[in-house]
Amino acid sequence: MNTPHKPITLVLLISIMLIIVNCGGSSPGSNGHPGNKGKRFTTVDINLLGEGTEIREAGEQLMDYPLGVLELKTEGQTNDSVLVMAVHGYDSRGYEWITGLKNLTEYYGSMFFYRYDWEQCPDIIAQDLGGRINEIYAAGNYKRVLIFGHSYGGMVVTFAAAELGKMKAEIHAIAAPLSGFPKLLDNCNNLSYGRDDKLQYPEWKPSVRLIQHRTAHAQDGAFRELAVDPQEIELPFYSIVELPPTMDGHRLGHNWSVTWVLDKHIGKPHRF
């Protein structure tokens, strides 16, 4: 009979399991930032995403990652005191982010990209985004937060402004229909509108600054068929940047506005 040996076998199995766990290192989704131990992200080597003629395939690859926070990594990253979060738009194909994200990742040491379910309402998405930013911020040694949101993602980050409390934050809403977009919001019954039928946002602290980057209405393929530009709205602690109609000799429309704004932020020039 083998009954007397069962306790030994159990101890042996437990020991083997502990060895496997301890030797396994960080999981593919663990954050390598020393201030964020225990936090789980999908870590993406930004250099694996193509560019140039491969940029659309790279965009598909980016949007194939699971929902949640992606940590974007490359060698030689600096400026690790700034938490940078990028948020895509509705039904994004991802390619509009590739060039700008690569340039940002070379400039900042803590770069993140937020993937979300765009069938949800922007205020609901913003609550999740705000919670994730607060978790990352609390676990690191960050001095400020920098957020970029495009299109529907611009609405999301504007709602998320109220979730950031007193932290020092700068939010960039790019080509975002901040006053509302009925086709996207028809089922969002919890949203509020003012007398002018423009979307209302929760108040945020003065430490949070919002910059809206508006595309030229007639040049934006997402908005040009609308009689009223959905980017037109007045908000607190807020400034407006009017984007040029062209970039590098081509039309600066809805998607390429991302590249313009992200590159402009780090001082990389584009011509009109």
Can you offer a commentary on this structure?
The protein is 30% helix and 20% strand. It contains seven helices and twelve strands. α2 (55-63) packs across α3 (95-107) and α3 runs parallel beside α7 (257-266). It is α/β, with parallel strands linked by helices. Strands 1-2-4-3-5-6-9-10 form an eight-stranded mixed sheet, sandwiched between helices. The protein starts with 5 loop residues before the first helix and ends in a 6-residue tail after the last helix. It has one domain (38-266): Rossmann fold, CATH 3.40.50.
The percentage helix is 25-40%
Question: What's the number of structural domains?
Answer: 1
CATH class, named: Alpha Beta
Given as residue ranges, the uncertain stretches (5+ residues, pLDDT < 50) are 1-38
Q: The CATH topology is what?
A: Rossmann fold
CATH architecture: 3-Layer(aba) Sandwich
Q: What is the terminal-to-terminal distance?
A: 85 Å
Q: Tell me the total number of β-strands.
A: 12
What is the typical, i.e. mean, pLDDT? 86
Mass-distribution shape? globular
Work out the radius of gyration. 22 Å
Order of helices and strands: HEHEEHEHEHEHEEEEEEH
Q: Give the strand order, joined by hyphens, for the main sheet.
A: 1-2-4-3-5-6-9-10
Q: Spell out the CATH superfamily.
A: Alpha/Beta hydrolase fold, catalytic domain
Number of helices, counting only DSSP H or I runs of 4 residues or more: 7
Q: How large a portion of the residues is in β-strands, by DSSP E?
A: 15-25%
Largest sheet report: 8 strands, mixed
Structural class: alpha/beta
